[in-house]
Structures are given as structure tokens and as C-alpha cells.
């Protein structure tokens, strides 16, 4: 498993809305942030990976208008990789490198990835994610 951290959990109810639900593959569970601007998820990979795609499924009405991806190698500072402009939808959204869209990831090698969810579509700044997938190649 990949060690991960999140900015917040709704009402601190980790059992029902915690970070473990980002990757459990269940359509019934989700990570639900608490209110506030700039919610985020950080992933630390055990060895370097070449990230090429991001898969994300929000709950419509609780998505992010802007996702900023930052990454780095071990011992380095985070640097901005890409800005993604997801749709406010419950549909699975997949980024493709080298496509001219608002949802593309620049291929990069890293040990740590931070996804910041800015400009939530929810009035209170909450973000709800049912699925998060980072595709690429382990090096």
C-alpha cells in the first residue's frame, strides 16, 4: 500500500469517510473532506514511479474546479507538475498525457505526489472522492 495523508475528514469520522476509501474500489464508500478551502491528498510511493494518468471520481456537487498536481523525488521540494480542470460530475474522469484538454497530466518520475483540490463546487469547500487512481510505471 502507498502511505497517504489527507487534509481533513468530515466530522473526523475516519471510519465512514477516511482516506482508506479513496482506493478500496467500492462504489459505496468515499473520502469526504471537512469544509474549508484547498483540500488535498498526498501519496508517498515506496520507490520511484513514472506517473502518466490520474483517474478520479468525485461526487457531483462536491468536486473541484481546479486540481493542482505537485511531485518530487525523495529529499526534494514539491514542484508543480500539472493543473487539471475536472468536470463537476460523478463520472470517472481520466487524464491523458499529450492531449489538448483541461484534464491532462505531464508524465514525470517522482516518489511523492500531492493533489490539491482548489475551488470546490460545494459552497462550504467540501470535496467528495469515490475513487482515486494513479497510473504509471514503477521504476
UniProtKB/TrEMBL annotation:
Any one cellular component term from GO for this entry? nucleus
Q: Output the superkingdom of the source species.
A: Eukaryota
Keyword Nucleus among record annotations: yes
Q: InterPro entries of this UniProt entry?
A: Galactose-bd-like_sf
Q: Where does this chain mainly localize? A: nucleus
Q: Which UniProt keywords apply?
A: Nucleus
Asked if Lyase is a keyword of the record, the answer is no
Where is it localised?
A: Nucleus
Q: Name one Pfam family in it.
A: F5_F8_type_C_2
Family, similarity comment: Belongs to the NR2C2AP family.
Protein name (database record): Nuclear receptor 2C2-associated protein
Q: Which organism is it from?
A: Brachypodius melanocephalos
Name the gene for this chain.
Nr2c2ap
Amino acid at each position: 500500500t502507498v502511505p497517504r495523508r489527507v487534509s481533513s475528514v468530515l466530522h473526523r469520522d475516519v471510519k465512514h469517510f477516511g482516506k482508506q476509501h479513496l482506493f478500496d474500489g467500492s462504489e459505496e464508500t468515499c473520502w469526504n473532506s471537512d469544509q474549508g478551502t484547498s483540500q488535498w491528498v498526498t501519496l508517498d510511493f515506496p520507490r520511484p514511479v513514472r506517473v502518466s494518468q490520474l483517474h478520479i471520481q468525485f461526487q457531483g456537487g462536491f468536486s473541484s474546479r481546479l486540481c493542482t498536481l505537485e511531485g518530487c523525488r525523495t529529499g526534494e521540494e514539491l514542484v508543480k507538475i500539472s493543473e487539471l480542470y475536472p468536470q463537476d460530475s460523478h463520472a470517472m474522469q481520466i487524464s491523458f498525457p499529450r492531449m489538448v484538454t483541461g484534464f491532462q497530466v505531464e508524465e514525470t518520475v517522482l516518489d511523492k505526489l500531492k493533489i490539491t483540490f482548489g475551488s470546490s463546487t460545494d459552497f462550504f469547500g467540501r470535496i467528495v472522492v469515490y475513487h482515486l487512481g494513479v497510473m504509471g510505471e514503477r521504476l
